Amino acid sequence: MDNRIPSALFSLLLLCSAALSEPDQQHQHHQQQQQQLEHFQRYLRIRTAHPHPDYASAADFLTSLATSAGLETLTLEFSPGKPLILLTCRGSDPTLPSILLNSHIDSVPAEPLKWLHPPFSASNVDGRIFARGSQDDKCLAIQYIEALRVLKSDPSFAPLRTVHVSLVPDEEIGGRDGMGAFANSEAFDALNVGFVLDEGQASPTDEFRVFYADRSPWSLVIRAVGPPGHGARMYDGSAAENLMESVEAIARFREEQRAVVEAGLAAPSELVTVNPVYFKAGTPSETGYVKNVQPSEAEAGFDVRLPPTVDPDLMKRRIAEEWAPHSRNMTYQIIQKGPIRDNAGKPLMTATNESNPWWSVFVQAVTASGGKLSKPEILSSTTDARFMRQKGIPALGFSPMANTPILLHDHNEFLKDTVFLRGIKVYENVIRSLSSFAGNSE
């Protein structure tokens, strides 16, 4: 008796089996996405906003989530009560420089009365998840972990390079006790990091934004002194008059920078911004200020942001000669919150051309995921990536949030659930490509 199944019948059975399993696959995929969204919302509900971020609860949640994804976990602490979580997915060649994916745990405060939905509820309203940190940048931590969870369950995933995820405290207040301390530690050096991805920003268009540099923040304080006296006297060179001349000089510089942007010659982040943040003068009284006394001192503070393409020495010369000249009884103080050059004296920038092999791999991975990148930018503000660039490690700022309004630090910050889920798929491609890159990364 011939027990063989005719080939036509066998093919039919295979088709029927595939048809029967397709609904099951769709159901599993739906369940997976719901779980990913649930993890995101649970993280958002942990209040890690300053001034009292709940780092302990966040650390417990993140380490538990990472363990369930099959990742190694390590908790470091460079300042009491400020845990830094390090997650690891081992590659097969430990001699190759590793990949580091960074995200900060903390967020800025929120004003609940000015939100449509409570800022720590993570309410999903018509597909929009409202929460402080939804864009900046709790989405990244969950996307990293969930992308690695998917990859580790795929038998074809065989990374050459080790992938680390750093989840750090205090980025929103300067990062000194977080990534700043970590970057200068033996624990960091032991990772042999070759390339870093950190936070970027949302994009209102269908293109993902990518950042190759940050602007360095300076706090500038200008002080003026002059003869005090009766409010009716006409002094030449009073403190307030001297300060006003400085403010006018700064205003002219601001207009020059604005004209360059309006002419389409540069993006705002490629230029220097000098924004006044406070003015202080007058003789105090119990009811406010004395109205008939000219003060002997006046002071103004400015937030200055410098792109790495600007010579800081020339900027200091402008301040000394034009904005706060000694000849007008002016003094100034510059508080530099970060360097503008790396340890080798080079500008804090990551190459976005063929000279940087990491860039090529990154672009190909994003493209393979169906994404498009806009023209690389300098970030207007500052992120933890600067600590990496200072050490000469190439670092890009990237948050896959296309077709999304920019709402970081704003009221009603939200992220669409579809955008969040797509970001996981993007990172699956990016992590797979970067960790499999066998070329020379020097």
TrEMBL record:
Q: What is its EC number?
A: 3.5.1.14
The compartments listed are: Cytoplasm
Q: What is one cellular component GO term in this UniProt entry?
A: cytoplasm
Sites binding Zn(2+) 2 sit at: 136, 172, 409
Q: Name one Pfam family in it.
A: Peptidase_M20
Q: What is its main location?
A: cytoplasm
Instruction: Name all Peptidase M20 dimerisation domain ranges.
Output: 218-326
Instruction: Identify the cofactor(s).
Output: Zn(2+)
Look up keyword RNA-binding and say if it applies.
Answer: no
- Record-listed Zn(2+) 1 binding positions: 104, 136, 199
The active site is formed by: 106, 171 (proton acceptor)
PANTHER family per UniProt? AMINOACYLASE-1, PUTATIVE-RELATED
Q: Which family does it belong to?
A: Belongs to the peptidase M20A family.
Q: What is this protein called?
A: N-acyl-aliphatic-L-amino acid amidohydrolase
Instruction: Look up and give the organism this protein is from.
Output: Acorus gramineus (Dwarf sweet flag)
Read off the lineage from the record: Eukaryota, Viridiplantae, Streptophyta, Embryophyta, Tracheophyta
